[in-house]
Specification:
Low-confidence stretches of chain A: none
Strand content of chain A: under 5%
Strand content of chain B: under 5%
Distance between the termini of chain B: 45 Å
Order of helices and strands of chain A: HHHHHHHHHHHHHHH
Largest sheet of chain A: none
Largest interface: A-B, 54 and 48 residues
Shape of chain B: globular
Number of strands of chain A: 0
CATH superfamily of the largest domain in chain A: MetI-like
Structural class of chain A: mainly alpha
Helix content of chain B: over 70%
Oligomer: heterodimer
Number of helices of chain B: 12
Distance between the termini of chain A: 10 Å
Chain lengths: 314, 293
């Protein structure tokens, strides 16, 4: 068990290291001088030279990669071109908004678990059929359409929810009010997806011997469901939620832009438009770390809840 | 005799595919999916004939109008016919999805087959590549690439290929691993058939089914990604009509006219439902485990 945890964490570090170097090499694959792109055509040679020296661009590629890694390990992601502030500070400032959005969406999507359970227990009933069709159709529904339609109906037409911003972070009810539509935009597809997943694995688990045994012993149905069936049926969901962090962070970009919320997504978009390289890299790397951490934690949780999976992994 | 054979073979093939389509359409979900997808393909191919107006014809006097007998879906901020723009946008959406998913399936299958069939160290490195690519958040990766290489249709397709080939690669690897121990592969090996021939002739045809199902279900995601990038102004360049840029027009003028936004979202929803239903039905037909239930 301990060996597996170490192995999994080492793999995560390796993945992040590879991702960082790829990102770095990609900047250098760009045709033309990145300094020209950053400063625009009107910069004087002196300014260009100064920036080149500051970014270590005047040194060999391997040395640059070394500096990049060194900075990365010590949490120095470089400096914002405009304000000259450390990139990490700016990213950390925006991070809480995105984290709140992502975690609320994750919590919201667990609504799929009871729905999936109910559908599996009352299999082929009306609820199962109707909800089956609804969830299949919403699973792939693009966040962009869901978000824009919600904005149109609930904010612009009905005026029930605010149109822009994250609200006042000191006033939690105001903040929640601003959070509702963005969270729904992201999580609605995941509620559908998780309910399908739980339904499928629940149906499989319910036909297994240990559930039949528990029933034969006369255990109350609620206990059979929660202790014996759901515990197994929920495993694929946990793995999936780890993987889903990547998708959810992707949809937060669009969602934050549509609802004009602060956060990593809007920060990235603004820095892309102003060609602020260090900020783009910093944002992408921080979110990559979160995604790798998400799938690693999900894998570890999975092995904790289901020791059988360890054998398969070895 | 050969003449007779030639007559028989195509007939058999066509009746086989006809049977397959009939089986697909027996379930209402499959019927809806198949119909929607066929409609979109036809619209994309014959866009020039179906569109009632030139998608780029500006008519500023009739801007931001609601649906009318002349303009079924209304007009945008420059008075261009929304329906015609959406019809031409179908071409872009399906073109991007078709080419990029095709390439991703190709690259993913080759790498996956090598990983599943080759030595352990190769398997590990290819899996590391897959895991690394998967750890980038797609849209963020896309934004970073766009800022480096500039927005264009080619960039969008390259991004989709680069972010989606691991999905197919992983599937192919699992399939290859389960097939490589089967008797017919072992006998082919014993006969001294070369590795690439085994992969190409014997493993690929047996492993491609599930990959195609996943590919069908991936179409909506790819179309949504293209729409998302064009919505952000980082995909297809104007004035080329793309569903994403029409959505952006609708978003910009959300307070002036709800029709532009409403009609721009409709094809995205329909195409999503179409390909997802079709994929679900294909899976039900191909997956014997579900069939038995």
């Amino acid at each position: 068990m301990f060996g597996y945890i170490i192995k999994r964490i080492l793999l995560a570090i390796l993945i992040i290291a590879c991702a960082v170097s790829t990102m770095f090499l990609m900047i250098h694959a760009v045709p033309g001088d990145p300094v020209n792109v950053m400063l625009g055509p009107r910069a004087t040679p002196e300014i260009k030279e100064a920036l080149r020296a500051r970014l270590h661009l005047d040194q060999p590629l391997m040395t640059q990669l070394f500096y990049f890694f060194k900075g990365f390990v010590f949490g120095n992601f470089g400096f914002d071109i405009r304000s000259n502030r450390p990139v990490l500070d700016i990213v950390l400032e925006q991070l809480p908004h995105t984290l709140i959005l992502v975690s609320s969406a994750l919590i919201m999507s667990t609504l799929g678990i009871p729905i999936g359970c109910y559908a599996a227990i009352h299999r082929n009933g009306i609820f199962d059929r109707v909800f089956g069709i609804i969830s299949i159709s919403i699973i792939a529904m693009p966040a962009i359409v869901v978000g824009l339609y919600m904005l149109l109906f609930f904010s612009v037409e009905l005026g029930l929810f605010p149109v822009i911003g994250a609200g006042d972070s000191n006033d939690w009810s105001n903040y929640l009010w601003h959070l509702t539509l963005p969270v729904l935009t992201i999580s609605i597809a995941w509620i559908g997806y998780i309910s399908r997943l739980v339904r499928a694995s629940m149906i499989e688990v319910l036909s297994q011997n240990h559930v039949r045994m528990a029933r034969a012993f006369g255990l109350p149905e609620v206990r059979v469901m929660s202790r014996y069936a759901l515990r197994l049926a929920v495993l694929p969901t946990i793995t999936m939620m780890g993987v889903s962090v990547a998708f959810i962070i992707s949809s937060t970009v669009i969602t934050e832009i549509i609802f004009a919320r602060p956060g990593l997504g809007s920060l990235l978009f603004e820095s892309v438009l102003s060609r602020n390289y260090p900020l783009v890299m910093g944002t992408v790397l921080v979110s990559t770390i979160f995604i790798v951490a998400g799938s690693t934690i999900a894998d570890l949780l999975n092995s904790l809840l289901d020791p059988r999976s360890l054998k398969e992994n070895d | 005799m050969s003449e007779g054979l030639r007559d028989v073979v195509p007939k058999q093939a066509s009746s086989k595919s006809l049977k397959f389509i009939l089986r697909l359409c027996k379930d209402p979900m499959g019927l809806i999916g198949f119909t929607l997808v066929t409609c979109f393909v036809i619209i994309a191919i014959f866009a020039d004939f179906i569109a009632p107006f030139d998608p780029n014809k500006i008519d500023i006097l009739n801007k931001l109008q609601g649906p009318s007998a002349n303009h079924f879906f209304g007009t945008d901020q420059l008075g261009r016919d929304t329906l015609s723009r959406l019809i031409h946008g179908t071409q872009i959406a399906l073109l991007v999805a078709g080419i990029s998913i095709g390439l991703a399936v190709l690259i993913g299958s080759i790498l996956g087959a090598i990983a599943g069939y080759g030595p352990n160290w190769l398997d590990f490195s290819i899996m590391l590549l897959f895991d690394m690519v998967r750890s980038y958040p797609v849209i963020m990766f896309a934004l970073a690439v766009v800022v480096l290489f500039g927005p264009s249709l080619t960039t969008v397709m390259a991004i989709i290929v680069a972010t989606s080939f691991p999905t197919y690669g992983r599937l192919m690897r699992t399939q290859t691993q389960s097939l490589r121990q089967s008797e017919y592969i072992l006998s082919a090996q014993a006969l001294g058939v070369s590795m690439h021939k085994i992969l190409l002739r014997h493993i690929l045809p047996n492993a491609i089914g599930p990959i195609l199902i996943v590919a069908s279900m991936d179409v909506p995601f790819v179309i949504a990604l293209e729409a998302g990038l064009s919505f952000l102004g980082l995909g297809v360049r104007p004035p080329t009509p793309s569903w994403g840029s029409i959505l952006n027009d609708g978003y910009t003028y959300i307070r002036n006219s709800k029709w532009l936004l409403l009609s721009a979202g409709a094809p995205l929803i329909l195409v999503t439902i179409g390909f997802t239903f079709l994929g679900e039905q294909l899976r039900d037909i191909f997956d014997p485990k579900i069939n038995r239930e």
